[in-house]
Predict the 3D structure of the following.
Amino acid sequence: MNLLQKLIDETKPWYYINSDITAEHFPAPKKLRKGKIIAYEPKLTDGVWTSKGMLKEIKEKGYEPVNLYEMLEAKKTNPEIFKEGKWYCAFGQLWQDSGSDRRVPRVDADSDGDFRFSLGNFEGDWHSVHVVLCLCDCDEQPLETKTLKSDPSPLSPLDFPNLEQRIKELEDWREKVVEAFRK
């Protein structure tokens, strides 16, 4: 059993799990960071927020978005973070689907108590129901890491020193894919 399936099993029950949430689409990172995870609600502009605006906002605050594995680890060890009626996003790891949409892992904590494990659209608008899970060193403690036994994705966000470079690398990769299909 791979690490992703193990974490999914350890965080049951799930009302729904998107079939595209796989270890192939979201490979385990080289390191699983440990630290305080917070649920951050970005500033809304006209009732929405954008991914790029939110990434800039959390960077200014010194936060780092969690990846899929860190989100599941938080659900396992700190389930109180996942309050009903909010949808929790892990912007630290993206997957590009066959339609060239960049997808963001998300845990939906529905008001009826059900949990859905789904994917949001990075390029889409986000609303007040969406919350971003972030790692922070709020206690001025450096973030610890736990080494994982896995092969990292060539697009693993932990391979890049900053968020802007992560986004640029994904955009460059997308352009190469689109160009290859045009030939």
